[in-house]
Amino acid sequence: MAECKSRHGYSSCSNRHRKMSLLWLLLMICAFSGDSGGGGGPGGFIRLAAAEHVRELEVSEGVPIGHQIGFIGEFVHDENGDSGPPYLIVPVPGSAVDTDLAIDHTTGEIRTKVALDRENRSSYSLVAIPLSGENVRVVVRVLDENDNAPTFPTPIMSIEFPENTPRDVKRTLNPARDADLGRYNTQRYSIVSGNVNNAFRLSSHRERDGVLYLDLQINGFLDRETTPAYSLVVEALDGGSPPLRGQMTVNITIQDVNDNQPIFNQSRYFATVPENATLGTTVLQVYATDQDAGENGQVEYAINRRQSDKEQMFRIDPATGLISVNKPLDFETRELHELVVVAKDRGMQPLETTAFVSIRVTDVNDNQPIINVIFLSDDATPKISESAQPGEFVARISVNDPDSRTEYANVNVTLSGGEGHFGLTTRDNIIYLVIVSLPLDREIKPNYTLSVIATDTGNPPLHAAKDIFLTVTDINDNAPEFEKDVYHANVMEVADPGTSVIQVTAVDRDEGNNSAIVYSLLDTPDTHSHWFQIDSHSGLITTRAHIDCETDPVPQLIVMAQDNGRPPLSSTGTVLVTIHDVNDNEPIFDQSFYNVSVAENESKGRCILKVSEARTTPQSPQTVPH
Ligand SMILES: *[C@@H]1O[C@H](CO)[C@@H](O)[C@H](O)[C@H]1NC(C)=O
Ligand SMILES: *[C@@H]1O[C@H](CO)[C@@H](O)[C@H](O)[C@H]1NC(C)=O
Ligand SMILES: *[C@@H]1O[C@H](CO)[C@@H](O)[C@H](O)[C@H]1NC(C)=O
Ligand SMILES: *[C@@H]1O[C@H](CO)[C@@H](O)[C@H](O)[C@H]1NC(C)=O
Ligand SMILES: *[C@@H]1O[C@H](CO)[C@@H](O)[C@H](O)[C@H]1NC(C)=O
Ligand SMILES: *[C@@H]1O[C@H](CO)[C@@H](O)[C@H](O)[C@H]1NC(C)=O
Ligand SMILES: *[C@@H]1O[C@H](CO)[C@@H](O)[C@H](O)[C@H]1NC(C)=O
Ligand SMILES: *[C@@H]1O[C@H](CO)[C@@H](O)[C@H](O)[C@H]1NC(C)=O
Ligand SMILES: *[C@@H]1O[C@H](CO)[C@@H](O)[C@H](O)[C@H]1NC(C)=O
């Protein structure tokens, strides 16, 4: 049946050569009919009909239309005896001779009718039957030209590598194909661009089908965190001169592997929270990042309860890292909370990091600072001796947080109210010392009210004030003083022993025992002090014995006032006593003439002359001392 069809195909074909003589047609039909063999193809019947020789012609592909390929009968008609043109042209079925070649059967000239393409059809076959002699089997071979570039099946190819893929691992890429033959086929590949840090290289090998197969190999180490993707432009070149090229973009996605642990943006976090903070109050936020992608880079936060905050005073939001108050805080119970916070990624094999969070609880109710004063006196009471020299310390001042008991630094402490007698000194702005600036005198000012004010530059500013009531203590720096230097007293000669003569008073400006006065009389026998006595406490002078105007009309006393200080101080005063004679009897003079001299400024009532009665022992007249 195949032959039948061929025959029909041939018949229809030969219809176009109606000019051919009927005779030849019949000849051919006979030849076919007589072919009892199974050999297919037109050659069979031609061989039966006549002997055949082969005429091979070559033509490069792509030559212009109308290009002369050659002649059928050239060189052959001499030896083989074909009769030359004209020919009956019989194309081999399916060889497209009719469409692509123009054959002049009268001359045997073959020309191209279309642009030939070896890659479409590499040869043409026909049988030329001369009027006599051997048939010519004509084969026109189309020669290859480099008219095809290597071509990748797709312009873009996407592949993926996990970032921990070892070096030299291969991935097959779609190879480029080039329809041309031999050296005009694909010869090599190269990466034109996109190969950051030479991460990849190409390798290729040719297989039996002639295709140059292509592999992409890892040339180094992949790190998604550094380069997450590559876009390589791969070029294929053939062996032409110049070579033709084809390109393909290879998009490479580096797949994440959990090779990075979360990293906190601080290794330690600090925060303070007032102790009355309500539950849920946010204290601070910790923050960690993980360079990995997807779940490998998603960070979850937790408090490590095994190591910290077992009481769950605080809690942390796993997603945001916000730490908030979970239970009522109490400054007095716990002032500092140290939390160990863990950041963990959500990879299959998670990685984690820890950070430390210090939360200081502040005492809100009691944050008023207090000024702490320590007096440097022997019994730590607010006093200073009036003998204190400038520069001597009075008190130590510091400003304390009463709850933490820590002393504030850089506090500005000022002092007022000392009238310049007191000042402040500090070396470190933490401890201040109150010092004496000017000499003190208790007898002038026995006490001072000093005001201490502490401020700082904080926000809110620290402000505290305190008054100090400072007593100046006494030293025995004043002797008793008599109200007068000289006292005058009168006493009747007849006075009984014990009669009051005069009370002297001395005053001591000191206080206490330093001003407790004891009076005494100095023993002066020549001025008859023994006639008198003095009360040591009251200073009252009384007679002690009978006094005698004639013996001494003006006895003179030296009184001493001594205080009870240590050592005691004393002073003296003079008492002049005038003794008055009292006589109510008729006087009997023992002398008829008394010769007495009296100073003109002599005080009134003074004994200037004692006139004794006759019975008394005559006494020598007494003259006035001055
Ligand atoms: C191949 O050749 C046939 C005729 O022989 C033609 O019709 C066709 O267009 C050609 N194809 C190409 C790709 O040149
Ligand atoms: C390939 O990568 C390039 C550059 O990154 C991008 O513009 C393009 O859209 C990618 N193509 C595909 C198919 O992923
Ligand atoms: C905490 O105490 C301070 C001072 O007493 C007060 O001003 C503040 O309002 C209190 N806060 C809360 C949440 O009770
Ligand atoms: C760390 O992150 C926290 C929360 O976002 C932020 O408050 C803090 O300022 C950051 N610290 C640094 C050093 O960037
Ligand atoms: C302390 O206060 C005084 C008086 O207000 C001021 O003159 C002085 O500059 C202050 N010192 C400091 C360190 O603030
Ligand atoms: C303090 O001294 C004044 C005199 O400057 C005095 O009047 C006052 O009584 C004294 N106060 C005390 C408590 O000693
Ligand atoms: C005062 O002196 C008396 C007697 O010398 C003594 O007993 C007393 O203790 C002294 N008082 C003081 C306060 O020193
Ligand atoms: C009295 O005495 C003075 C000197 O003592 C003497 O000069 C004078 O003469 C005397 N007078 C009589 C009258 O004796
Ligand atoms: C009288 O005057 C003398 C000399 O001027 C003087 O020394 C004497 O103390 C005075 N006597 C009296 C009691 O005033």
TrEMBL record:
Localization annotation: Cell membrane
Residue span(s) of domain Cadherin: 51-152, 153-264, 265-371, 384-482, 483-589
The keyword Oxidoreductase appears for this protein: no
An MF annotation (GO) of this entry: calcium ion binding
Secreted keyword on record: no
Keywords annotated in UniProt: Calcium, Cell membrane, Glycoprotein, Membrane, Repeat, Signal, Transmembrane, Transmembrane helix
Chief localization: membrane
GO cellular component annotations of the record: plasma membrane
InterPro entries documented for this protein: Cadherin-like_dom, Cadherin-like_sf, Cadherin_CS, Protocadherin/Cadherin-CA
Signal peptide start and end residues: 1-37
Membrane topology (UniProt): Single-pass type I membrane protein
A GO biological process held by the record: homophilic cell adhesion via plasma membrane adhesion molecules
Protein name: Cadherin domain-containing protein
UniProt organism field: Anopheles coluzzii (African malaria mosquito)
